[in-house]
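A brief tutorial aside. Many learners find it easier to grasp structure tokens once they have seen a single protein encoded end to end. The record that follows does exactly this for Biosynthetic peptidoglycan transglycosylase. Read the sequence first, then the structure, and try to relate runs of similar tokens to stretches of the chain.
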Amino acid sequence: MVKKILKIFRWVVALLFVSSILCVVVYRFIPVYFTPLMLSRCFEQIGNGEHVKLYHSWKPLKEMSPSMPVAVIASEDQRFLTHHGFDYQAIEQAAKEHINGNKRLRGGSTISQQTAKNVFLWQGRSWLRKGLEAYFTFLIETMWSKQRIMEVYLNSIEMGDGIYGVQAVAEQHFGLDAKDLSRSDCALIAGTLPNPRRFSSKAPGLYMRKRQKQIEKQMTFIPAFSEEY
């Protein structure tokens, strides 16, 4: 009986392993139209008695404003082009601040990690989810280009209440196409990403305007994002 259970367990693990790799390979080539985060937000809205809001349109990176990837790199992950999925310097700094009693914890999550989490996993802070996040981050860094990681990230990231991706936020908050967003628009959108349901790019307050200017300043030190990465 024990041997049978172990055999089934091994088959399940092997199946999950193979299917995870297949998913990563498939998403290397086809658009990501729906994610676990979108599903969980829809259930939250239903549970709160609200109408379901889901705005999302896939947009190739070459059809977005060239300032958009520069803005999110400046805001979220300035070593995106040089690390391999994990920013160990940011992780070390976050750990030091936590040890020193800093109550406002700094995030060490890279764009690659956020992409892995949003596309393949559920939301949460369990050790299991963090372990799977590291696993999928390794896979996409191995099998995708930086260009593809950025493209999927900018199409799947939450950018407002029921708003996912650059094209959707451009339409809903600016009345524009993603390719027509200005440098300042992109900086403002990037500034909301730590908490896009709290901070709005549609009705930014003083704090968001300050963040926008800071990100625009940082963007001057970030190289243009090209197809070579």
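Self-check: The mean pLDDT is 88. If you spotted this yourself, you are ready for the next section.
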